[in-house]
Known about the structure:
By secondary structure, the protein is an alpha/beta fold. The chain has one domain (5-311): Rossmann fold (3-Layer(aba) Sandwich). 38% of the residues lie in helices and 18% in strands. It contains nine helices and 13 strands. A seven-stranded parallel sheet has the order 3-2-1-4-5-6-11, with helices on both faces. Helix 5 runs parallel beside helix 7 and helix 5 packs across helix 9 (297-311). The longest helix is centred in the first third of the chain and has 22 residues, at 87-108. The radius of gyration is 19 Å and the shape is globular. Bound molecules: nicotinamide-adenine-dinucleotide (NAD) and uridine-5'-diphosphate (UDP).
Amino acid sequence: xxRKKVLxxxxxxxxGSHLCERLLKEGNEVVCLDNYFTGQxxxxxxxxxxxxxxxxxxxxxxxxxxxxxxxxxxxxxxSPIHYQYNxxxxxxxxxxxxxxxxxxxxxxxxRILQASTSEVYGDPEIHPQPESYWGHVNPIGFxxxxxxxxxxxxxxxxxYHLQNKVRIKIIRIFNTYGPRMHPNxxxxxxxxxxxxxxxxxxxxYGDGKQTRSFQYVDDLIEGMLRMMASREEFTGPVNIxxxxxxxxxxxxxxxxxxxxxxSKIVRMPLPPDDPTQRQPNIDLAKKELDWYPxxxxxxxxxxxxDYFASII
Length: 312
Ligand code: NAD
Ligand code: UDP
């Protein structure tokens, strides 16, 4: 076994903590960077006893120097309420974070993977979304700090690759859920499960007919590792998501049923620019990475419900 030294930015967040765990399980040495804006030490506290795990408080908008072979760049708030809380900081995190990590990757000749997002497609007019679709994003809307920040980060990745031969990998992650989402994170799966478990009203924004395609975290982490290990010339972007599409109303009904909850559904205003539909085309991931999601919604929701039941 070859032990690699790997840097994970945003490693104390929901996805980052699962990634750190999996990388350690595979026998690697992991350095986890986080400023704890939306992540928490609690997510990785169980890894601290491992001598091959290191946790560092650092903000990716500032340069960082280290010797590693691989970098996974995940640092960025991902939930609309959190990325809109300080929109300028969100853009800085995406753009300056990308510049700092790409500069590091260039200097140390590391492979670097960017956690991009289905939000680069905005409110898509093509359905399902293939990687070739350029998207439909409002550049001055409430979501722009995140969407345009992530789009600019993709531009930086591609240009560091073309100009400086940096070894890049870009994945576009579609809505992912699972244990260690923050209970107050504000995203739909965590909101509905917490509300259902507490028998509180389930808050549907708008008419609930908007769709999302939900992926369980373990499937995503497998896709991330496969992308990092893929042939050098394959830089992406590649969609990593579960194509099974549900309306938000359907999701609410499934969560209520799986939790045996007495919660009632209530309607709240739809946030501006909320995408009406979202579903990944994963042909490229299947072809290049031999990857497809294995865990379907009810199975993943049950695991996530068990987690939230244990913490609230
Ligand atoms: P999260 O909020 O749980 O994790 C983000 C982590 O980044 C947190 O630990 C946070 O403290 C850290 N962070 C934020 N700003 C930072 C900064 N300036 N410096 C250092 N650390 C910083 O969210 P997540 O769901 O785990 O998302 C991780 C990544 O995956 C993000 O880049 C997100 O855009 C991307 N992504 C997630 C999803 C999803 O559905 N979960 C979908 C698409 C893309
Ligand atoms: N949503 C909802 N109730 C909630 C939280 C979210 O109806 O309590 C809706 C939201 O308007 C969106 C969908 O669920 O249409 C997914 O929202 P989330 O914030 O999880 O992710 P994103 O919009 O970034 O895909």
